[in-house]
Design goal:
Layout: H1 3-21, H2 24-30, E1 37-39, E2 46-47, H3 49-61, E3 65-78, E4 81-93, E5 105-119, E6 122-132
Parallel strand pairs: 1-6
Antiparallel strand pairs: 1-2, 3-4, 4-5, 5-6
Length: 151
């Protein structure tokens, strides 16, 4: 991997760690200052830094626990722009039970595309697009897929 690709992969990892830690300041530092966009699974396109960061503030405030296990990570760098595709294997949990125990955990799969731009301050997110994986990709001869996954 090239030095640029290594830097992009580090920025991509930092993005997911910021979500896991629920740190909005950390998240804010990862995004470009100008026009950005974001599509969360099932959401409309969000445009502009304020709208995108507001969405992460809502997600972080309403998610008791979340952890990402990234697979199929591919990094491509072309000049000052980089593209990362990956599968987000997500484990998330609801609010704690009345007795203080951990709430129910739910797993899901999302395929994501993250677009970064090189800046003097390092690689910054320009766009994030996540799409839920609805089928396992193993179809029968008729093209019908098997089990579904919630993403």
């Amino acid at each position: 991997m090239t030095e640029a690709a290594d830097g992009v992969e580090l920025a991509n990892t930092e993005f997911y760690e910021a979500i896991e830690s629920g740190d909005l300041d950390r998240m804010s530092a990862l995004w470009l200052d100008d026009e950005v966009s974001c599509v969360h699974p099932g959401w409309p396109v969000l445009r502009g830094r304020a709208e995108v960061l507001r969405s992460y503030a809502l997600i972080m405030a309403n998610t008791e626990y979340i952890q990402f296990f990234l697979t199929d990570v591919e990094v491509a760098v072309l000049g000052e722009t980089a593209l990362v595709t990956c599968t987000e294997n997500i484990l998330s949990g609801g609010p704690a039970e009345e007795d203080g125990s951990t709430g129910p955990l739910v797993g899901g799969l999302v395929v994501a595309t993250n677009v970064f731009r090189r800046t003097p301050g390092g690689w910054k997110l320009w766009s994030h697009h996540g799409s839920p994986v609805m089928a396992d990709g193993e179809g029968d001869e008729d093209g019908e897929s098997g089990d579904t996954a919630v993403g």
